[in-house]
Amino acid sequence: MKLSLPLQGYFDLLKHPPGAKKFVCIHCGQPVSGLYRQISSTVLKIIDCDKCKKPADKYIEFEVLIILIDLILLSKPAYRHILYNSDCKNLWKIGCILILLEAYCFWTDAFRGITSITYRSHLNDPFLSEKGFYLSTVHFVAGFCLLYGFIYLFTRALHRTVPKVTNNGKTYPHMLLHGVILASIGKFLFIPIIIWRENSTETGMAIHIVLVLMYFVISLVQIHSVVSDCVRSRSCTIVILAFFVKAYFLTRVSGLLQQFV
User: Fold this and answer.
1) Phi and psi torsions of 172, nearest 5°
2) What's an example Gene Ontology biological process for this entry (predicted)?
3) How many other β-carbons are positioned within 10 Å of the β-carbon of residue 103?
């Protein structure tokens, strides 16, 4: 009988050779050789971590909905499970969807309450209108690349002990990229702006956008602390510094793009 785990089809567990310490404990980050021991064809026993003596990864017994709730609550163990112990093959697709979502909000002037940048043409030309959406997409692709690049650079400068290879064998830049995408999931909260934009004031939308961005920054700090294995205060400094420098350079990029509108 084939054993079927609750995460099958969503976040499959990584496949590693027996004895290779490529998984990590979700509580302390200590490398472990495995997450569970198969007692019988239908019974699993979760392996305890040698360092903290807690179950190495309790989420292998949880349904996906519970894991998503813990991700929303910014749980470090949930982040470690997704980043280190799961095979997130479709995480890049989530990143693409989020960039298109933000680009659509920008294109429809949903963000006009907190910025003066717009790519919507005043001419009633369908081609120019579609062109504005593509420019908005370029805007947010550039913003994502700048944010990732500055976080990486500031981490190298301020946290010199970052390993080239993380506990699960993947390179640090690769794991940091996955972390930035995972932190961006909170931007799905921009969807209510699209739905109720006509019934909201600019002040209300601006407050909504600021709250979503604050949630994004907090989740990015949590994930950076997990991936870089540093204290929250240092992660907070690195992320906020990267966020403001990215905003400065993105304003320059936006000025160049507005010339094509």
Assistant:
1) -60, -45
2) sterol metabolic process
3) 21
φ and ψ at residue 246, rounded to 5 degrees:
-60, -40
| Both structure tokens of 175 | 């794991």
Give every CB contact of residue 114 below 8 A, 6+ residues apart in sequence.
206, 209, 210
The answer to whether 194 touches 108, Cβ cutoff 8 Å, is yes
Task: Please give the span between the terminal C-alpha atoms of the chain, in angstroms, as a whole number.
Answer: 61
CB-count burial class (<10 Å; 0-12, 13-18, 19+) for 53: exposed
pLDDT digits (tens, 9 = 90+) for 36-51: 887 776 777 888 888 8
Q: How far is residue 24's CA from residue 79's CA, in Å, rounded to a whole number? A: 11
Closest CA to 142 of 224, 217, 252, 239: 252
Domain-by-domain residue ranges, the chain? 5-64, 88-259
Please state, in angstroms and rounded to a whole number, the distance separating the CA atoms of residues 4 and 10: 12
Q: pLDDT tens, 79-114?
A: 999 988 887 777 888 899 999 999 888 888 777 666
CA distance linking residue 151 with residue 235, whole number of Å: 9
